[in-house]
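stuck on this chain:
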Amino acid sequence: MKYGLCLEMAFTDKPFNDRIRLAAQAGFSYAEMWFVDGTFNGTDCSGPGKDPDAVRAAADKTGVTITNTVVGSPDGSIGGGLIDKSRRAEWLARVGKTLAFNSAAGIGATIVCTGNEIPGMSHEQMVTAVVEALKPTVDLAEKAGVTLLLEPLNTRVDHAGYLVTTSDEGADICRRVGSPRMKLLFDCYHNQIMEGDLVSHIRRNSDVIGHFHSAGVPGRNEVYRCESNYPFVIAEIEKLGYDGVFALEYTATTEQTASLRDSLTYLTGKGA
């Protein structure tokens, strides 16, 4: 298994490019980021942003592959989301900006979130709107050579009001879009909260899974302090022939580097 690290939740007291170096020192060959125009803080994304050439140079220097970015905020407040047709032009413009960054920085994927439910629309109407919005989105991604990762999220703890909350529905949407550049991001943390039974869901949706996230439940902390048996889950994923990245996206409860190295020791049995 290839292990990755979300740099937006690790070494957060350091400049972004320094986090790439620190991730490498902690034992990771893969890492990922969120917004290209600043770290998402829930309300604003108007900071100076990240420089794609500098990100590429920092990654090349340390031997770290940056796997993905994120287009817009989960609730749709930044970027418009995939549901609201009145903000479709805003969404596609943000997609274009993100894909341009990915191409310049050598990043192969970007995460797309649906946005929150819209009052007055039925669930099926909203899902249909997501599929309709993803089709021109994936057209842009195909031209850029970038893969889209659709992420279901939990509404019980972190993302009240979010539309797609299960891996089964997320996988169905990916199949309806019908492009090799349209994949499912299976986040074990979110799916443990909403569905549980992780291995069964992974098995039946393995045809469209393009990336994994993980964190401990409850708390979104270390994977070795939680209710999920992650080594077992990873072994089952490997049996399915998955050759992508299994990424850690959690808040450490101990010193950051020690926490990450302990996580790798737990997951691999051999440490960083």
In short: The chain has one domain: 2-268.
